[in-house]
Amino acid sequence: LERHPTNHSLPQAAVLSNGGVAEAVYNIFLEETNDVSVPMDAALKAWFQGLQKTGIEGNNSSSSSHPQVLAASKYLEAGIQANLAWGVLNYEQDRSDRLIKASDYAKKALAVYDTTDDTVLGKEGLPRVLSIVASCYHQADSAVTAEGLFQSAIDRNSLAGANSTLTLLQIREAYLEYAKLCSQWEKREGDAKKLTEEANAINESLPPNWQGKSGLYGSLWFWTPGEML
Q1: Is the distance from CB of 79 to CB of 219 less than 8 angstroms?
Q2: Which helix (H) or strand (E) holds 80?
Q3: What is residue 40's three-state secondary structure?
Q4: How confident is the model at residue 36 (pLDDT cuts 50, 70, 90)?
Q5: Angle at Cα 229 formed by Cα 110 and Cα 16, nearest 5°?
Q6: CB contact at 8 A, 98 and 49
Q7: Which residues 6+ apart lie within 8 Å of 5 measured at CB?
């Protein structure tokens, strides 16, 4: 970024978003290998700081008015909001307003897709956002609403680029979270098993280095500063 300064803060938002993912992935690794609970404070802080950098409306630079840059800023905002929701929902258990706060982040993330021209970047990141919104409804004991959202999250026919690695990671996670919902639903154990098998099939179709990775990886932004100048 020092070599490629820009007139807006979008590259900084992408750096902070990816930094938050790196922090979260490392924390998950520590938990899985050491059987300990690791706070997500550093990841949440990075995402919150990144969120403050996503807004480019009112910027006078010519690049900020480019349709692709405008769409990228919105989808990056949605991705960060979704990651904040995921972090609060799963790692802020001591917060009395945990579900309210997570739901607020998740709903704001989903609202971005209602206000952004999807002809520019498609529905980038939508499966993960839908899955996290569904998880909020699941934890709020609104199973029917959660199921409808999970079904939308795994609907590959409505997504451009649905077979990309990052999108498949998001869809796989949605299948697994949907399976959790069904496993807690009376007489839906069979559905839970089928959904888990679908998730496993997606996992086997992924490149070897991506197999078994969390859907969190699906929120990574691969970019160069020149793309946002």
Answers
A1: yes
A2: helix 67-91
A3: coil
A4: confident
A5: 50
A6: no
A7: none
Show Cβ contacts of residue 109 under 8 Å, excluding neighbours closer than 6 positions: 77, 78, 79, 81, 82, 85, 129, 132, 133
Closest to 84 in 3D by CA, of 140, 26, 40: 40
Q: How far are the Cα atoms of 8, 68, 159, 191 from residue 163, in angstroms, in the given order?
A: 32, 22, 9, 23
Residue appearing with tokens 């704001």: 108
Confidence of residue 7 (pLDDT cuts 50, 70, 90): low
CA–CA dist 212, 226 (Å, integer): 32
Q: How many CB atoms lie within 10 A of CB 92?
A: 17
Greater confidence (4 vs 206) lies with 206
Task: Yes or no: say if 201 and 173 are a contact pair by the CB < 8 Å rule.
Answer: no
- Structure tokens belonging to residue 74: 């919105």
Q: What is the pTM (predicted TM-score) of this model?
A: 0.88
Q: How far apart are CA 201 and CA 182, in angstroms?
A: 18
Say if CB 87 and CB 43 are below 8 A apart: yes
Segment among 4-8, 77-81, 203-207 with least mean pLDDT? 4-8
The answer to whether the CB of 172 falls within 8 A of the CB of 159 is no
Query: Residue 154 in contact with residue 126, Cβ under 8 Å?
Result: no
Residue 58 pLDDT: 47
Cα angle at 51 between 78 and 40, to 5 degrees?
95
Helices 126-139 and 98-115: crossing angle, nearest 10°?
Answer: 150
Query: Does residue 50 surpass a pLDDT of 90?
Result: yes
